[in-house]
Design brief:
Two copies of one chain form a homodimer. By secondary structure, chain A is α/β, with parallel strands linked by helices. Chain A has two domains: 25-267, Aspartate Aminotransferase, domain 2; 270-391, Aspartate Aminotransferase, domain 1 (Alpha-Beta Complex). Helix content of chain A is 43%, strand content 14%. The first copy, chain A, has 14 helices and 13 strands. In chain A, strands 2-10-9-8-5-3-4 form a seven-stranded mixed beta sheet, with helices on both faces. In chain A, helix 1 (25-31) packs antiparallel against helix 10 (253-269) and helix 2 (41-58) packs across helix 10. The interface between A and B is large, with 88 and 88 residues.
Chain lengths: 392, 392
């Protein structure tokens, strides 16, 4: 007895949550192009193009720059399990869900994990790490650049210098930041970094861009034990993504097409213009939200432009409001995770979702819902405030 | 400086290698549908449909049946790293590349791995396992049902009984077999099984269907240590794919659409009809190849219908012939791996690629190339032989 599920007919959504974000139409079209084999000469060109465009985006010359054939969380795992061996010491900075996840991944890899913590929404200063670095003398320091659970934007320039001075390798989570704000792998001396396709790259989830410094690759090549994950082992992946093209696993061809087209879009726009667009739409949204009396959850001066985590106004029903946004307006925003559950909304302005039409329609829809729930505010003020930002 | 790779413009291919195979046009169209969020009520319906259709295909009632968010090799890793803990004993049957890979994955997971081996192209009988089972008393026995490197079709009925009688859990690689020949998870008592989207399901690579028996899930839930892979840990994935829908990672939405449509196609055709189609086209190809004097690499009576591994005729240049097939006819077939490199071609008739037009165009193209390379045969005989099979 066959059981056939109903025809595929997804509703049209405006994706303003923590990811996936709105997909660019050219990226969707790219996904549907004819599949070729994973060792086809044409696919090898696609791999070359992906690597070259990813290096441009990560601002690195690292040869070992590629896309892991899985989602961003697997990118995290790839970075961690290659760099640490059992009994290695790793220091992880935890100020949200994704720092905590990194610590969990490191423990599973057998690392001796030491954590430094900051309250959710805050960022780390070099001072926060000094003692722990001196005490743990870690082989690896892990930190999240854009904490998707809190919207906090972690500065890395000074911390990366401190970590390098200590002799440790720096491992960075750039899942939400890559493509939305500057990520300077070489200038900041980052040894391992990972991201996801579904945030600021306007591409569906399914691939994890990563980059490893030559120093990190050398450390992996000189491990005492094999990398615990066969799938994520960069000593083998180097032969597939390198010039040898030795078969490892069957690459996700059509997802690669999507990321390829997404990266073409970013480079066509130009990195600076792309970052400026993310910042402008963030400023417009923030002005609009301020007019509604809505405040940000992350520390002042360290708020991510692409992930706006804001306090749910008092008296407003979280689940009801998000359900109405989705069902009546087709707009998805994210709820809070962990400590922020029921207290915070996460409004994404990532990639193709970072545009004025999204900001304005979201504010208008939100006004409508807040009015229904009895929230008091000056009607139309949020739109006016956002438009004022755009007018400048 | 932005570096923009050339526009995406893949050549049209007929994919008759070891995978990816030809993608059904409905599957390509499904991939390009609008992305929704991974916790969108609509996506939860897609997950339900995927699970239900996968259970139908695996012929199982296992609740823990889902698609790993990565390719088939990650499915292998998911099966192994969940079932074995450090110092657990695992017996792996090795008669090709993928059995050897499974042993490697198990060693990396800390298992005490014992191997039983058969020559490439041969299959295992229960007798081959008796001694090893008695000696190693393994917790898990791993075996490949369809060895993609040799084209050997491993019978599982008797071996599964033997493994169960020994008290071990049975772990099966069904990457190439699922959707092409019967896979009876419940009837054969399989505890963990994995496959890939890009073989007999007419879907691009990127997802790994898996299923775990209740007995296997219980064993995982009672592990002494956490699963070494956070990404593949089914104790957490159970909460995402189960009724709780607890966020784990961001699922690859559009790849899920593709697999969903691919599974609808399989169930629309019906499993029996689908298996019969794979067998018919295999018989036609085999008859055609025989007319050219080309022999199978796998043991007589154990040749996979969807993966035809054949000996390259004496005097024929492997690389030159495959290059000409690809460049002049757009036909991809696979070369040999490992021991079979330069000696074997792997001709896939998987999923949408398993159709008479592919068989006939391939034989006609092959005749053309063999004639050029001076191979002696009766011209047109391969087509006639194949058509004779179809005419019956």
């Amino acid at each position: 007895m066959s059981r056939i599920a109903p025809p595929l007919n997804p509703p049209v959504r405006i994706l303003m949550g923590p990811g996936p974000s709105d997909i660019h139409p050219r990226v969707l079209a790219a996904m549907a192009k004819g599949t070729v084999g994973h060792l086809d000469p044409y696919y090898l060109q696609i791999m070359d193009g992906l690597q070259e465009m990813l290096r441009g985006l990560f601002r690195t010359k690292n040869p070992m720059t590629f896309a892991v054939s899985a989602t961003g969380s697997a990118g995290m795992e790839a970075a961690v399990v290659n760099l640490v061996e059992p009994a290695d010491s790793m220091l992880v900075c935890v100020n949200g869900v994704f720092g905590a996840r990194m610590a969990d991944v490191a423990v599973r890899a057998g690392a001796e994990v030491m954590q430094v913590a900051r309250p959710w929404g805050e960022v780390f200063t070099p001072d926060d790490l000094q003692d722990a670095l001196a005490k743990a003398k870690p082989k690896v320091v892990g930190i999240v650049m854009a904490e998707t659970s809190t919207g906090a934007w972690q500065p890395l320039e000074e911390i990366s210098q401190l970590v390098r001075d200590s002799g440790a390798m720096l491992l960075v989570d750039a899942v939400t930041s890559l493509g939305g704000v500057p990520v300077e792998v070489d200038e900041w001396g980052i040894d391992a970094i990972y991201s996801g396709s579904q945030k600021c790259l306007s591409c569906p989830p399914g691939l994890a861009p990563v980059s490893f410094s030559p120093r990190a690759v050398e450390a992996v090549m000189n491990r005492k034990r094999k990398v615990q994950s066969w799938y994520l082992d960069i000593t083998m992946l180097a032969n597939y993504w390198g010039t040898d093209r030795v078969y490892h696993h069957t690459a996700p061809i059509n997802m690669s097409y999507a990321l390829y087209e997404a990266l073409r879009l970013v480079h066509e726009e130009g990195l600076e213009a792309c970052f400026a667009r993310h910042m402008l739409n963030h400023r417009a949204l923030r002005a609009g939200l301020a007019a509604l009396g809505i405040e940000y959850a992350a520390q002042e001066g360290h708020q991510l432009p692409m992930l706006n985590a804001v306090r749910i106004p008092a008296g407003v029903n979280d689940a009801k409001a998000r359900k109405a946004l989705l069902e009546r307006f087709g707009i998805e925003i994210g709820g809070g995770l962990g400590d922020f559950k029921g207290k915070v909304w996460r409004i994404g302005l990532m990639g193709h979702a970072s545009r004025a039409t999204n900001v304005l329609v979201f504010l208008a829809a939100l006004e409508s819902l807040l009015a229904e729930q009895g929230h008091k505010f000056d009607h139309g003020a949020s739109i006016a405030a956002a438009n004022e930002v755009y007018a400048k």
